[in-house]
Amino acid sequence: MTSSANAALSHWSLDREIVLSRVIDAPRELVFEAWSDPKHLPQWFGPAGFRIESKEIDVRVGGVWRFDMIGPDGTVYPNRMRFLRIDKPRLIEVDHGADKDEDPGMFRVTVTFDAHGDKTVLTLRQLHPTAAQRETVIGFGAVEFGYQTLDKLAAHVTTLKG
Fold first, then answer.
1. What are phi and psi of 7, to 5 degrees?
2. Are 67 and 57 in contact (CB under 8 A)?
3. Helix axes 142-161, 131-139, angle to 10 degrees
4. Could you give the maximum distance between any two Cα atoms of the chain, in Å?
5. 13 φ, ψ to 5°?
6. 146-157: b (≥16 Cβ within 10 Å) or e
């Protein structure tokens, strides 16, 4: 695993994991592009009804995406992702948390893109620093919000296909 400021993220543990998967009706190169191109990523990222305002976006290993996720009620959620691994068009790995240094709630996200004919099987794995944090984020809707985000990705990719 890639090193992280949070030592708990250096080894995978199933009791701290959330896994989401979605089949997207588009070639994996296109789905990967939507995840890795700064002009596309902010257009679809986030749950239904949320919008993104990027402050900084540098999609490369070591690069950072700092953005505000703005809820339907106007609540602003400052976010930061640091890109740890990018293996085009197979994998993207990031540390994701609040837009602050040394965020104890930061979690690891590994996204894989598997070709299945003209479709892509996207699997998103989150590793939280503690089992308690995993339970907390599930409780506030992380799984539902994650699937809403993947729905928005699929819709965005459909527009890219033309």
1. -60, -30
2. yes
3. 70
4. 44
5. -145, 125
6. bbbbbebbbebb
On the 0-12 / 13-18 / 19+ scale of CB atoms within 10 A, 97 is buried
**Residues in the chain, total:** 162
Q: What is the 3-state secondary structure (H, E, C) of the chain?
A: CCCCCCHHHHCCCHHHEEEEEEEECCCHHHHHHHHHCCCCHHHHCCCCCCEEEEEEECCCCCCEEEEEEECCCCCEEEEEEEEEEEECCCEEEEEEEECCCCCCCCEEEEEEEEEECCEEEEEEEEECCCHHHHHHHHHCCHHHHHHHHHHHHHHHHHHHHC
Residue 1 confidence (pLDDT)? 39
Asked whether 60 and 45 are in contact (CB, 8 A), the reply is no
pLDDT, tens digit (0-9, with 9 covering 90-100), for 69-128? 999 999 999 999 999 999 999 999 999 999 999 999 999 999 999 999 999 999 999 999
Residue 16 CA: distances (Å) to CA of 44, 82, 143? 26, 20, 13
User: What burial class does residue 9 get, using C-beta atoms within 10 Å of its C-beta: 0-12 exposed, 13-18 middle, 19+ buried?
Assistant: buried
Taking the whole predicted model, whether its pTM rises above 0.85 is answered as yes
